[in-house]
Inverse folding.
């Protein structure tokens, strides 16, 4: 596809608020929206919650500034939803429902009716993306998905446009690091962030940076996932000490695997106070139907 098709698609939409995570996908949508309508007609909105790493918020602010776009970071309250906190496999649905409702409300306060996300064609084929349903339910735009643009397409176009995000590693929310069934809490998310920051800092100081770094919270144990060439005994003990200092009791070291927890068994499901298990079962059943339809 030509680069113009994305700009033309966004020009059809008009003034737009972009749900801007700071990642490569939403950054491309934001840049294209600016080309289509001008920076004064575009709003970048980053959901500011405990599941967003502080460094990612700062990056989003800086990127929006380079485009001359207004950037807002409203606080979101997904952690107040017991169905999100329960951390079942449908967690992202409840998160995105809250986040996109918040972004839509902020957009309307600023006179903008349309909201777009960076959902791409690969995301739409991924069976572990229940959050996409939340966006479809409230009518957010997904221009990358609509045009069939894959992650590779996004990176290639971003590179042609000179966007700093063209090769930025994927950095999903902190909650994605927590094994399903472990309750999502601010303290648990802060511990994961603290550990990942410490691991990246140690690797940089040692002269062995890793493109991908994940600290998976498995309960008391953490699993550190790094680029394959770094998974060796020579750094295992040092990293274990770094991660224990962040609050974990034991540490394992393995090769990075994107979405690893989606392929592992959850711990016994927690049930936060005020949670209706019958309602949860109904939602899970709906998600299974939706995910089957995607394929």
């Amino acid at each position: 596809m030509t680069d113009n098709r994305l700009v033309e698609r966004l020009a059809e939409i008009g003034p737009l608020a972009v749900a801007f995570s700071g990642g490569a996908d939403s950054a491309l949508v934001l840049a294209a929206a600016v080309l289509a309508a001008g920076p004064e007609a575009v709003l970048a909105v980053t959901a500011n919650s405990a599941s967003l790493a502080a460094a990612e918020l700062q990056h989003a602010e800086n990127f929006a500034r380079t485009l001359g776009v207004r950037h807002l970071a409203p606080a979101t309250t997904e952690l107040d939803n017991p169905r999100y906190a329960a951390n079942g496999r449908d967690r992202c649905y409840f998160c995105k429902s809250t986040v996109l409702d918040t972004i839509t409300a902020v957009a309307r306060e600023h006179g903008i009716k349309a909201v777009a996300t960076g959902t791409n064609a690969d995301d739409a084929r991924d069976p572990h993306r229940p959050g996409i349903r939340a966006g479809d339910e409230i009518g957010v735009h997904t221009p990358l998905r609509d045009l069939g643009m894959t992650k590779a397409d996004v990176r290639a176009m971003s590179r042609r446009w000179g966007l700093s995000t063209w090769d930025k590693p994927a950095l999903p929310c902190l909650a994605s690091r927590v094994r399903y069934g472990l309750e999502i809490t601010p303290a648990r998310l802060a511990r994961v962030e603290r550990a990942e920051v410490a691991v990246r800092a140690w690797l940089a100081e040692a002269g062995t940076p890793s493109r991908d770094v994940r600290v998976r919270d498995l309960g008391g144990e953490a699993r550190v996932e790094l680029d394959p060439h770094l998974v060796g005994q020579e750094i295992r003990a040092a990293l274990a000490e770094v991660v224990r200092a962040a609050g974990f009791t034991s540490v394992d070291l393995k090769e990075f695997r994107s979405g690893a927890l989606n392929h592992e068994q959850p711990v016994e499901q927690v049930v936060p106070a005020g949670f209706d298990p019958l309602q949860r079962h109904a939602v899970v059943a709906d998600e299974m139907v939706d995910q089957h339809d995607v394929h």
In short: The two ends are 24 Å apart (CA to CA). Residues 182-263 form a domain with the Alpha-Beta Plaits fold (CATH 3.30.70.2210).
